Amino acid sequence: MYNLFGPMKISAITGQVGTTGAVFAKVTDDILKDSGISNTLHRMQILHARDDLMGQLHIGNDTSPIPAHKESSLAETMYTPEFLNTDREYATKSKTLSVEKAMDSPKSPPRKLSHGSIPLSSKSDSTIPPIQDYRSSLPTFERQRVSGSVEVEGGKYMAMMKVLPSGALIRVVGETLPLAANPLAKLLVDLYKLQKVAFYNADNARRFIKRCCQIQSLFSARKLKYVVKLSVIKIIGEVLEEAKDLFRFFSGRGWLVRVVRSPPDKREFQRLDDMLVQSCLMGHITMSEQSKENLKQAPRYTNDVKVISNKLDELGGMEGLRSQKVADKLLPVLVAGKCVLEEAVESELEIYDDSIDNSGPYTVIRNQEMRSFWRRSFPGKEHVSWDDFWRCFPRNLNSEHASDLSEVLSSRNHREILQSHLARSSPDMLNVSEVDFVFAPHIDVPETVRKLLRVDMVLTNLKRSGSDSLFVGIRDGPIDDGYLFNFPDELEDFAGREELMMKLNLGMQDRGTKIVVLAGPPGIGKKSVASSLSRSLISVGHWTEAYWVDLRGIRSQTTAGFQIMSALGILRETPDQQYLFGFLERQQEKPVGLVITGCRSLLESREKECAFIDYIENMINASKNMQVILTTTNPLVETRPTILTHEIGGLEDSEAADLISTHFQATAEEVDPSTLLEHVTSYPACLRVFCGMASSGDVTSEQLLDLINNADLPDVTSVPSAERLRDIDAKSARCLTACILSLEEELLNVLMVLSIFPSSFVDDTVLEILGDQCTEVKARSSLRKLCNRGMVQYNTSTGRYDLHLLVRDAGRALATILGIDYEESRKVFVEYYIREVIYVTSKMQKNPWAQKAGYHIFHRDLINIEQVINWASIDPPKGCLSIYVNLLWDEMALLKSRMDVGVLEGFCEACKIMAEDAEYVKFKTRALIQQGCLMGDQDRLNDAEETLRDALSLCLTSVGADTLESARCYQGLGMVLHKKNMAEDALEYYKKALLTVEQLHGKSHIDMAKIHTAIGDVRKTLRRHAEARESYEEALKIKKTCLGEDHLDVAKILAILGQQCRLAGDTTEAETVYRRCLDIEEAGLGTEHPQVADTLVDMAALLRQLKKYPAAEQMLRRALSIREKCMGPNHPQTAACVLSLSLLLKAVHKHTAALPLVQRNLQMRLRMHGPAHIEVSSALTTIAELLLDMGRYTEAYKHCKRGLDIRQKQMGSLDPSVAQASNSLGVILRHMGKLTEAEKASKSSLDGRLASFHPNHPEVASSLNGLAEIEKDLGRLEEAEGHCREGLAIRVKVCKGQHPLVSLSQSTLAAILKEKGDLDEAEQFARGSLETREKHFGQESPYVASCLDILASILLAKGEITEAEESAHRAVDVKRKVLGQNHPEVAKSLIGLGLVFLEGSKPSVAKNKFARAKDVCSAQLGDAHPLTEQALGLMEKSDATLATKKSSAAHSVTSSN
Length: 1457
Prior knowledge:
Elements (H helix, E strand, L loop, with lengths): L9 H8 L3 H4 L4 H6 L5 H16 L12 H12 L8 H11 L58 E7 L5 E10 L3 H17 L3 H19 L9 H22 L3 H7 L4 H17 L6 H8 L7 H12 L1 H7 L2 H5 L7 H19 L11 H10 L5 E3 H7 L6 H8 L5 H11 L6 E3 H7 L6 H21 L18 E2 L12 H12 L5 E5 L6 H14 L5 E6 L6 H11 L9 H10 L5 E6 L8 H18 L2 E7 L10 E5 L5 H12 L8 H5 L6 H11 L6 H8 L21 H12 L3 H10 L8 H8 L5 H13 L3 E4 L4 E4 L1 H13 L5 H24 L4 H10 L1 H13 L6 H10 L1 H7 L2 H18 L2 H17 L3 H19 L4 H16 L3 H19 L4 H16 L3 H19 L4 H16 L3 H19 L4 H16 L3 H19 L4 H16 L3 H19 L4 H16 L3 H19 L4 H17 L2 H18 L5 H17 L2 H19 L4 H17 L2 H19 L4 H16 L3 H19 L4 H16 L3 H18 L5 H31 L1
Parallel strand pairs: 5-7, 6-9, 6-10, 7-8, 8-9
Antiparallel strand pairs: 1-2, 3-4, 11-12
Helix pairs in contact: 4-6, 7-8, 7-11, 8-9, 8-11, 9-35, 13-14, 20-22, 23-24, 26-27, 26-52, 28-30, 30-32, 31-32, 32-36, 33-35, 33-36, 34-35, 34-37, 37-38, 37-40, 39-42, 40-42, 40-43, 42-43, 43-44, 43-45, 44-45, 45-46, 46-47, 47-48, 48-49, 49-50, 49-51, 50-51, 51-52, 52-53, 53-54, 54-55, 55-56, ...
């Protein structure tokens, strides 16, 4: 057992007994109990020591029988699992000695082996549950069936003993072997010991193979006087298989590096080799003299390793080799063609370079050739533009592949196809994560490129066919894994279920079927069916490609979102589903499949199920041509038209029989499938494990059946954590348990260690967890054996191993039953993955351009890292408190970026409890600080403040006031209080944090920049813009010093500083800062990155403030283009950009161009949120305001009323947003002439704002002004004046100076005063309003024109006709130019101008103006609108005036005559 128990020496054990050696020989289990040793494990170790002592009495060729009372001890020694023996040398020795003990009689019947003196049902008061050796209850257990018996003339017989790779001995009951064969058994033991050492060194491995060949020839020699069974020779064959693993390790790419680093261990190897030779020479083995001489001589062979190592030393090592002519120097050493040798060594040099520099972003690429290509072409870069990529690819590949692909990729069309497959996050940039996703580790680069091009050919065939039916795009040749991403390897023995497969294929043929649910208990074969169905759909062209998503161990939608995005090759900083939807929308024309497995935890409640299915359907809606296969234990509660459910049961007897027959074809054992099926399961997963074990040679099917039916077999379903095992039938659970218990000890140990993994893993991780006693080759060998036995599956596309869920749960359950907690293994597991997190963080800190690479590495083992965190809350390994606290203290930023905040909060709580139990105040303080900050992130501000104040109290009383803990606590409190709108208090805490960090690290530490930034944010909230700017500038200075001028974090501070400069009115500096920020981002991220788009939006706001409208529009359109490409056309940030652009166009009165944009904004909000969301209401109000400006009042009213209804339903009638919508509705109704309804809406708005805001709030002033305008139109001038003056006073106080809002109130008051006859005061307010508007909006603005209308009416009332006519003319010209000829506002100005002409005795001209106004109002507003009626009335008045004028003129003529 690796890392299971600490070593317990025999002297310590006997010391517990307190007795002499003579008495110790007679010790029994009962005596040990009576002496007070309650721990079953310790008693078994003591009994083993007793047997070792007794066994020494029978060393050598003693053929005396074993006394009856000794047999049970021998059996116990043979059958005790190796992981119960803490002293490995002692265990091997005792087993070796036991082989030389003879049986009572050659004719005696086989005896039933018992468990010695420890009863199977023993009870113990110890904390570890009693350990039951269930194998000992199987009387006929053997690893390899041996038939018949052998005789030697005059010889005596002994029981045949089988030697396992671990060194354990197994008796083959019912078979005998001549005693003369005893030395062979000893020889095999020595051979296995030699084998273990050989794995440490390539040189030793070669010698070991020589010994294997020599000994194998001895076993096979005809000169032997007895027959050795084939099974014994097979043992040597298994050893050779182990050796093949080693030579694969030393012969694959990277051999040169491994040769240089191969650790010498020759002294130990030589000692064991001499022992092996002596075992051969001293045994009763008849061999020729020549054979003896061969054994005595050391194996003769050319030591290539040594020669190469010496040659490398001569050349100056790997660096020297790189600088010299490779072929000329090494050609005499290695036998190879010159060109082949050059290429091979060049390749090895690249691998060597990778091995000595593993900090670059390229290290995430697992395909060795693409990894080397990226390192050579783009050192230090995480992403490159496509132009840069195509300049190097394929030219910088190895010469053969570069030549192979040059012609293929000379076609622009082919390059575009490959680019479309690679580009997953950003269309204009390629990053290392995308390269790693597309170029699988096990496939050559040219082959991958050709497969991707063939995908496009199938898609072209589908388009040409014009049909969605199946079998229209059949591929040329068989299906391969090039079209399947992350799929597990196909099981060759998948059999049966043809009817189900046909039904599923037909169901998927209907494109209306979007989700196929495969429901059934664990192990029933859902994944195999899903995999086979996907391959079938790929092979006929129904899908062009398919993706596999494993969600095992995932409980939160956040982590599931990351996992799905990762499975599709999309890596983002946040699990923003809109990035995923954007990618799917770009791939809409591709018919793709998605297989989602392991989502049990995400479907455990109806609420979670609905949320998850909604998420999947949103993906399908974005893709259009996507179909999803979902595997789950139970059918979905939610039924929808697009979901097709199939419940899968066990295999039919005929199908199961076929599966059994397939497995046993390659074995010598004859089996009757029908007989086996009476006792074993029909679950494919369990049946495959059974067949894998029975056909492995470790145990026969007959023996497995005996163990399955054994009454003492443990019930793994009784373990509380074995939930999945209770979902399957009892026969399947017993079958699985028996197979696991039948593993040889070393494999059983490995399997139980692997059961701690919640997700897939790589062999390097296994080597780390198993410990120093397991070499890399040995770990791979164990994994290969477990794969052969059906318990572990290897995924070629990902290079990871996967333990079947049932096997994992059964392994955990057995460990629980045996009382094994794997404490050391779990501790190593925790340490390993925490090191991984620390590595990722350091990688991201060292290289600012390696953020995606860091996230990519972190995400590969996200589920295993979550397991580490979950253990902290459930069952933390002992001794892990410090590393757990270091994880939450130093790596929380990375954890928060990928994991659910609630999970992390529970992690902090668990660390706090562990620290309390250990009475470690500092660790408890750190846990409280991080827990409080996480609460603040979730806006649980009261809880966060209470927790952080508790932490601060501990800091001040126990940890220290001037510590990093105190500084972090001050920062956390500052953040929480800022969110609680307690800005002054927050500022004080941030200042304390600043002072503490300065004392600890100095003024230029990077943490100082973070605190300065936070202080700037608080000061900005307090409207202390100058002070805020100083804080941001100080943060910028520190970051430049620590990170460099061109670091992305510097760009982030520049963006904040630019915004602050803009708010402070320093627009020139703001523009300079923004442009510097943009330069850094474009250089580091490319010209089309979302962060670049953010800066462009900020710059557009600045340019709009500077009235550089064309430039602002250009910036916004570029930002919109980037967001559409990178985030998708329906992402919220894309929608925000659409809205910003529409508001800009509205502000410059490009209403026709703005209208499609605001309508698109509405459709995007509807798509994202549904019809009743508050965002939809905002979009409707925006459209209404634009339609109001366009004079389309009826349409404006419909949109505004719909938006108001949504807000009232969602927010209540007194919500501020409802008040805003009511105010807009009142304005629209006033323009429609519906003054009574307008007044009601306006009063409702005022009531809502007074309920939500202070009476002197600007929003209250807005409602007061709107109400005043309506009251003016209703003729209630006193009320109107009162409300208007009240609103004006608020705006003057809040806005100060010449502000457009003050101007609005001034113009309204001027119109009211004009109606009241206070003309001088009215003119004063009108001119003040006009001056402000001209300053802010320019001379040609509709807002200026409206003010000119009011001024003209006042001047007209004062009799200043000429000046009034000038103002009225100017108002008409501006409105016509900006709004167009047919806008209702133009009609208003025409009426005002007509009145001036009418008063100026120009009734005919006035009539023309009134007539034009009447035509516009009638067309736009209807004949019943008050403005239309006013224009019509003025026309009649003009006619009357004209008639009067003509009459007066005629009368004057008559009088003069």
